[in-house]
Amino acid sequence: MSGKEGQNPAPGLVTFVGAGPGDPELLTIKGRNAIAEADLVLYAGSLVPPAVVACARAGVPVVDSAPLTLEECHARVRETALAGGSVARVHTGDPSLYGALREQTALLDGDGIPWRVIPGVTAACAAAAAAGVSFSIPGLRQSLILCRAQGRTPVPERESLAALAAHGSAMAVYLSAPAAGRMVEDLGTKLPPETPVVCAQRVGWPDERLVWTTLAELAACVEENGFDRQTIFLVLPGEDADGDARSRLYAPDFRHGWRPEKESPLS
């Protein structure tokens, strides 16, 4: 027997794939390749439609992680990776946002298993695209806050919706439909009742729904439409403001390395 025979193979690579909001065509090429090349595909079936992982090779186990615990998921990943196989761990949206990434990678590090992350389109950007809105408006709002209301997972007081709303920034509120009443109460301490809100449910799925409402009517809108946990709320202070705010980037008198200053045709 040679020196290398009988030795355990090098651990296979575990790839966390951001699946995007649900539309298989919003999966990145790199993410699709990782799924197509994997020896095990573990996906969050409660949030990721089967069509996203349909590119897996024939005969490869494609496992829904929704009914599994963290330890049960890791046991499957560990078995494949330590045997030298590659794993695609498929998350909804982007793995870095509400994706339980830290605890999974800590277990992989403990077992000496290499891993990487492929980003995905998060629901906030997909909802804004579907609604045709821009999170940034020159002179009005220039920041976006990704957040959630407090539920079974606690939220630090400094990151409460009331505290964040004080900035007057655009907000994308995740995982908060069951707390719609409290969300309205908290946001209403800092924002006017007429603040526009987009309710976006299952963006990118065949049954996607978008409903415009106001902060004052948000709780009633959630109840009337049966919006559940797969709904993201885009809170857009100043969206209905008058005026024609333009980005300075394209102004004739805005000089940069690719365009010399020009005289404004309006001067």
**Number of strand segments:** 10
State the helicity in percent bands.
10-25%
Mean pLDDT: 91
Rg estimate, integer Å: 23 Å
What's the end-to-end separation, in Å?
85 Å
Task: Report the sheet-strand fraction.
Answer: 15-25%
Q: What does the overall shape look like?
A: globular
List low-confidence stretches. none
Number of helices: 7
List the strand order in the largest sheet. Answer: 3-2-4-1-5
Structural class of the secondary elements? alpha/beta
Q: What's the story with the biggest beta sheet? A: 5 strands, parallel
> SSE order in H/E notation?
EHEEHEHEHEHEHEEHE
How would you summarize the topology of this molecule?
Elements: E1 14-18, H1 29-37, E2 40-43, E3 62-64, H2 70-82, E4 87-91, H3 101-110, E5 115-118, H4 123-131, E6 144-148, H5 161-165, E7 170-174, H6 180-187, E8 196-201, E9 209-214, H7 218-225, E10 231-235
Parallel strand pairs: 1-4, 1-5, 2-3, 2-4, 6-7
Antiparallel strand pairs: 7-10, 8-9, 8-10
